[in-house]
Amino acid sequence: MLNEKNTWQDYALLDAGNGEKIERWKDVILRRPDPQAIWPINTHAKTYKNVDAIYHRSSKGGGHWEYIHQIPEAWTIHYRNLTFRISPTGFKHTGLFPEQAKNWDWMMDLISKHKDEDLRILNLFAYTGGATLAASSAGAQEVVHVDAAKGMVEWAKTNRDLSHLQDHKIRFIVDDCLKFVEREKRRGRTYHGIIMDPPSYGRGPSGEMWKFEKEIVKLIDACLEIFDEDGLFFLINSYTTGISAVALEMLMKSTIQERLGKGTVESLELTIPMEERDLVLPCGVSGRWQR
Fold first, then answer.
1. What confidence score (pLDDT) does residue 2 get?
2. Residue 236: CB partners within 8 Å, gap ≥ 6?
3. What is the 3 state secondary structure string of 143-168?
4. Residue 60 pLDDT > 80, yes or no?
């Protein structure tokens, strides 16, 4: 695992520890909290001190950015043929989870090999559209992007335009994911690939409550109702504390694989290698079913 390589050009994890990570986003160096970085870090090192902005958590919740140097309000970074808008938000995020590139690579390779099948892909809890754009650019006939946050959907549209995918068939939907899936069943719509990145906790546009452990099986079951009989893949991401890669794999085997009676399931822990130490930062888990 420690020989893992960073496949990004415009992004790098420089170092991590003491509950923080230091990242280069193109030409901007950010330091922000990360609860997985429980090991020590050298706070006297040049990397730790020479940053452009630091995110400080508040004891009352949330937090704020301290800008050491002036940086743009937003800028772009590139991955393969995709372009993404990056902007430090008030809740510490930047608009992209770079560890997901491993899943984009897997998905793009799979879709490109089967694009003659006119694949329809559904991306739930789709955020700013990394997986949406990866699937569309790889040759999916149609991608449906669903997220409850209107602002994130608008950000995803910006990323679509930056990636020059305006002429691709991408539908952007602001909705509660489960309700949308249930409506798609009533419409008789099916999908060959389903991606979901559900939060640990959340609320839909009308205040619908979501808790991963309580709701995930119900959502998987609903998605299987609209999964095409020639379905190609099913991808689930989790950043929920306590949900291991093995637990996610067992969840997918006991729901997706058992119900479909075919396919293979694998799980992986998403990590990012550090440039300055022979260490990696764990960043959540993924489970993949493949036809």
1. 42
2. 196, 197, 198, 216, 220, 248, 251, 252, 286, 287
3. EEEEECCHHHHHHHHHHHHHCCCCCC
4. yes
Residues 5-43 have pLDDT tens digits of 678 999 999 999 999 999 999 999 999 999 999 999 999
CA distance 162 to 33: 28
Count Cα atoms within 13 angstroms, Cβ side, for 215.
21
pTM, two decimal places: 0.95
* CB distance 226 to 262 below 8 Å: no
**CATH architecture type of domain 11-86:** Sandwich (2.60)
Q: Give the chain's length.
A: 291
Extents of the domains making up the chain: 11-86, 98-290
How far is Cα 40 from Cα 59, in angstroms, rounded to an integer? 22
CATH topology of domain 98-290: Rossmann fold (3.40.50)
Which residue reads 């995709």 in tokens? Answer: 82
Specify the pLDDT at position 6: 74
Enter the tokens of residue 44: 């006297």
Q: What is the spatial distance between Cα 90 and Cα 97, in angstroms, rounded to a whole number?
A: 16
